Known about the structure:
The protein is α/β, with parallel strands linked by helices.
Amino acid sequence: MRADFNLFITLCLFANVRLTTVGVVAQSRNTATVTVPVNVGVVLDMDSLVGKIGMSCINMALSDFYATHSHYKTKLVLHSKDSAGDVVAAAAAALDLIRNAEVQAIIGPRSSMQATFVISLGNKSQVPIVPFSATSPSLASLNSPYFFRAAQSDSFQVNAISAIVEAFGWREAVPIYVDNQFGETLIPSLTAALQEINIRVPCMSVIPESATDDRIAKELYKLMNMETRVFIVHATMPLGPRIFAKAEEIGMMSEGYAWIMTESMSTLWRSIDSSAINSFQGVLGVRSYVPKSKELENFTVRWKRKFQRDNPSITNAEMNSFGLWAYDATFALAMAVERAGTADLRFNEPNISGSGVSTDLQTLGVSRNGPRLIQELSNIKFRGLSGDFHFQNGQLESSVCQIVNINGNGERSVGFWTSKCGLVKDLCSKNTSTNSTSKPTLGPIIWPGDTSLVPKGWKIPTDGKKLKIGVPVDGFVEFVEVIWDSNTNKVKSVQGYSIDIFEAVMAKMPYPVPFEFVPFVTPERKAAGSYNDLVAQVYNRNYDAVVGDITIVANRSLIVDFTLPYTESGVSMLVPIRDKKKKNAWVFLQPLTSDLWITSGCFFVFIGFVVWILEHRINTDFRGPPAHQVGTSFWFSFSTMVFAQREKVVSNLARFVVIIWCFVVLILTQSYTASLASLLTVQQLQPTVTDINELLKRRESIGLLNGSFVEGILLGLKFDKSQLRYYGSPEELHELFVKGSANGGISAALEEIPYIKLFLSKYCGKFTTVEPTFNTDGFGFVFPKGSPLVADISRGILNVTQGDEMEHIQNKWFKSDVKCPDFDPVVSSTSLGLESFWGLFLIAGVASISALIVFASMFLYEHRHVLLQFPPETSMRRKVVVMSRIFDQKDRSSHTFKNPDPREASSHYSVHSISAEGSSSSTDCPPSPSISPNQTDSPDISPSSVEAC
Length: 949
């Protein structure tokens, strides 16, 4: 019994311990984290290098992420599919993943063309599509909320490329791109960025992805024969390395060439075969900048070890931005899935109506978790291996462009480009602003041909060809003359002013430019067309340039480029001149204008009046009957014209006025004499026509040079075609003028100033120019649009025209043996006007008025006692009458009357002898008898006595 009892107790204790252990285990299982698997698809070209690198980075990202986020309730489960580089295969793979695996998101596909179809599926099923290597700018136009590009768009690099081209002063660049969506979508934005800074794109080279080496060589040879030496390569692998290899083979990787490659090739070039690296020497590459960090260094070491273990056949793979974007995109997707939760990871069944057979697209379900997942993806922000990672409207934030220079077996960073600071050698800080005045700088660059000398960007093809320079044959031979060999019927020489200028400019070019002149003629040696037709030959590439008397006008500049002008500019009307001198009985009135005649006459009268006022009381010559006094005053004033006045002037004030007036009269008479002599002896040459509208009204003919653009001006002025007469030389023009409009000639010619100067040098003194004048830019040399020669030749023109050589050339072609007098045959009046003499009249007037004021002040002060004797009620009229009668008396205090005539002295008059009628028995009232010989003041005269007198 004892043993049984002990056995029972032992069994109970064991059962109790067992139950306790089971309870603890059950409790621990209930508190452990439950991890929910979330299906995620991966669509990549598994055999491509980008696909292999991307897949390895995605796997490492998941491993690293959940190692540091073990507490997450979700875990991505990858379902990978191989798109095999095919668009249809990529779409089928995505469709299969959505329908059968019910993936919540898809990473990939690799190319932009594949992404276009896969994004459409994702949009329909509300499954986010996250590619990391589809960089085409066209994907942004899809506007799908379920598209998240974890890579930089190719459009971000076009501004960096255009900044490089501008920084080195290149004026042209030729894009070389692959003939597919990847290549075509970047070119519009690239050309627009170049043209915005006046960089010309003369052509674009398109090469199919499957092009043979012969096809590539043919395309490169075509580019080699052009002037442009700057090429921008936007191609996929392995087409890009084949282009560079063939370029090196035919000599296009030598000195003088510049090559720039875009993001895709700049990122993957190190993964190509080492034997092809030599063809990349000196190339500039533009790619997204990945900032260095310890995390990146550690990851790169781990990835390289893992990748070589998984892909032993690939020995030259290098980590690039595509792999880093794949890594960061996986991180972002894992965080977004965790934040979105696992409330409902199912797909809604599609609503299929009708009894027809449904397609795979119609049976495609719609993810319930998609809207929450895209919202969380948009809010993800973290610092990844590629830098700051954040989606803005489904795109990564703008990054920094890094410019690298390939040299040897590696590359070297030479600068950066940012939207804030532009092109810089070192990265600018966040607070640094763009300085538009500072010149962009980069680090030292080794260019193709192993040289540090910056390529000029263009070059005249060195295949033995000469530039074909077209020249006109119909025009003034002084500018261009083609001399033919009568025996061979070939061009013997080309000469003229324009030819000498061009040859002088080409002699100053810093490099040799072979050229030959080609006359623009028909087989019969006649002009093959007008000057506009000649300019069009350059646009059509029949000529490399045109040299001659070609005027720079707006419509021509639309199709060609002109150098700086080497002559004066403008169009004017040339007309004959004739002597319009009229010799008649009244020619003596012409020297002075009517206003000057009237002003002079008024001043003669005024000066006579002033002298009479100043001399009347003290000078017997200015006394007597009124008619005598008026005549004497006028006579005195007018006699000063010939300085024949007989009357003496005794007043100092009057003498002052007369001196000033004689000076005025002297200048007037001398000017009148000179002007009259000019009218009678010098020819008055004036134009026969002064207004072009006169020719229109009278329907007279007008001349113009053969083929000149002036014809358009005349037709625009409403001239009829029948009124136009054409000529080809100065002699023909002169003959037309001699005939006159009535006899089949012309009355005027509308011509450019250089032609007019040449014509006047031959026929001086017979013709002149009149308005209208139309503005032009003178003569210039013609080159194709964007020709790099234009700038250098324009600088050469400045050197020639501003030096002594220009004078020698002008003397050679335009100096006439006949010395023409300098004259300005502008229609103007030859009469002298008041505007030339008003200063003199002003001086004379001020002097006269000042003398009158001084005289009046002295007179009133001398007779102030008379004014004081007037009763207060005396009217002003009476005062004036009294003072005027006092003024009319002789001033006995004047020295001229101190020794009077004895007969006058014996007479005695008193104020009482004045008759009641107020008249005196003598012309002059006698002085007061109380005046003593030594008295200097006037006698006291009462107002009553003066009034009686």
